[in-house]
Amino acid sequence: MKYSKEDKPERAGGAGAGSRAVPVALVVVVLCAFSFYLGGIYSTGRSLLDSIQPAPTALLALGAATTTRRPSDDGQARPALASTAAVAFPECPADYQDYTPCTDPKRWRRYGNYRLSFMERHCPPPPDRQQCLVPPPKGYKPPIRWPKSKDQCWYRNVPYDWINSQKSNQHWLVKEGDRFRFPGGGTMFPNGVGAYVDLMQGLVPGMRDGTVRTALDTGCGVASWGGDLLGRGILTVSLAPRDNHEAQVQFALERGIPAILGIISTQRLPFPSAAFDMAHCSRCLIPWTEFGSLYLLEIHRVLRPGGFWVLSGPPVNYENRWHGWNTTAQAQKADLDRLKKMLASMCFKLYSMKGDIAVWQKSADACYDKLTPVTTPAKCDDSVDPDAAWYVPMRSCVTAPSPKYRKLGLNATPKWPQRLSVAPERISVVPGSSAAAFKQDDARWKLRAKHYKTLLPALGSDKIRNVMDMNTVYGGFAGSLIKDPVWVMNVVSSYGPNSLGVVYDRGLIGVNHDWCEAFSTYPRTYDLLHLDGLFTAESHRCEMKYVLLEMDRILRPTGYAIIRESTYFLDSVAPIAKGMRWSCEKHSSENKADKDKILVCQKKLWAGKQ
């Protein structure tokens, strides 16, 4: 049935359609605003009830009544938090001792098997978040100190017998009495990791002279390769997925070697483009030639122009190895030929090959000019930032070097350690940045680190090895500790200016992360957590309570936290910290006129009642 203008009745008073449009427009505006509001709530992982509570939410949830308002250090009026006794958090069940919230094997069945995507990050929704303290294993004691920890750790701290029984023949680790010993073996280095790296250095001279400083090890085992490189001035991020038995990343961190949980599957790795000087795979079982070489394209993205990709294991040296690979020589030859062709198509050049090791170098020349959006592989367009890496799907295209940055190439980058103090080109991603601001930031952090050491004498000693800077910009805190026996995982917020490329350009390491979620690591893996204004920056999105509980999860018993914040937020942190069984002391900053204060806390070693 059709309707015409003649069928419509006249409106009384001659109001016409104009007056009716007003309430309709209001309804549309109200609905759009409400939709935007709900989107803001759920995109941050908060519930609707949480959003009604004024910030900081965590303290209100703990029963701190607020009826008055007082000005904060920045002059803004905020709710005055009543000082109440801390609420003691309960202990998590005993089977939570290795709990990793966003890579929890108990939740894997909820997700698909495609490309092992169930092993990627899948964080629990707000109603399922745990509000308890993760207990240490029975018999846990403070870790063996560096550098002895590189070769041994307490068995009770990582009580996993499966990996010992399955990998003892490959000399990954050996159980001896009350500890595990790490002899430095591996599937592809039966003569020890030292001899393996010696051979590699012969193929890549840049590993000897400071040209190669940062490396990525995919499928790292117990991180023996990364541990050996530490003594050669190369800082490695060891990457392995969460699993039910092997706990590879936990062993690596217990040894004092940098590592995170992760898998090359459907999402980009949490690193910017052109981050690493070298990437390595030692029989890591990643199907490089499948899925349109998507995994190789991701390695290409995170490598610097001129960087190296090192492969040992199938199909390299198939002529002598194929008998032990449950395959045929013809199949391995075809796989190697296909691999070479794929790498050449994405501007890799075969650099050297000897024995079990093959090395390719990412081109830094005009090779990319021949790529277009319709070639195979295609050249990436500008629709997605090549540095975006937080829940960003991998793309089946080649990330060409940006013409904005002419000094990202490995040969154009100053050698280590000079590169630590040179302002990188990528500081332009930070609003208001400049070479002068970079120098000032560097000097400021040297003063701060000196002051921290007066407040926490353990910093700079062998009592602290694994350090995390939870919200860095340039990596200044890590740079100030470069002569200390520590390594620092720099974390750059996924919701702010992505300055992580600057961190890597300096020869440091780090990841993108959102502190509204759990970090990709096992419990009890860091000796020191440092944050500078994190709650000021993120309290509108992330609940303080959950951030602090996550800090407790990843902090080792007897470990420390340095929290640099305004008095307003420190007063809010203190009762929660007490409820987590931390002991804290409040101090002034190195600049007495500074409004920020410093809370130095230590986590107690306690035994679970269960």
From TrEMBL:
Supply the SUPFAM superfamilies for this chain.
S-adenosyl-L-methionine-dependent methyltransferases
Q: Could you tell me where this protein is found in the cell?
A: Endomembrane system; Membrane
Keywords in UniProt for this one?
Glycoprotein, Kinase, Membrane, Methyltransferase, Signal-anchor, Transferase, Transmembrane, Transmembrane helix
GO CC terms in record:
endomembrane system; membrane
User: EC?
Assistant: 2.1.1.-
Gene3D superfamilies for the chain: Vaccinia Virus protein VP39
- Transmembrane stretches in the record are 21-42
Q: Which GO terms describe its biological process?
A: methylation
To which protein family does this belong?
Belongs to the methyltransferase superfamily.
Alphabetical list of PANTHER family matching this protein: METHYLTRANSFERASE, SAM-DEPENDENT METHYLTRANSFERASE
For this entry, the protein name equals: Methyltransferase
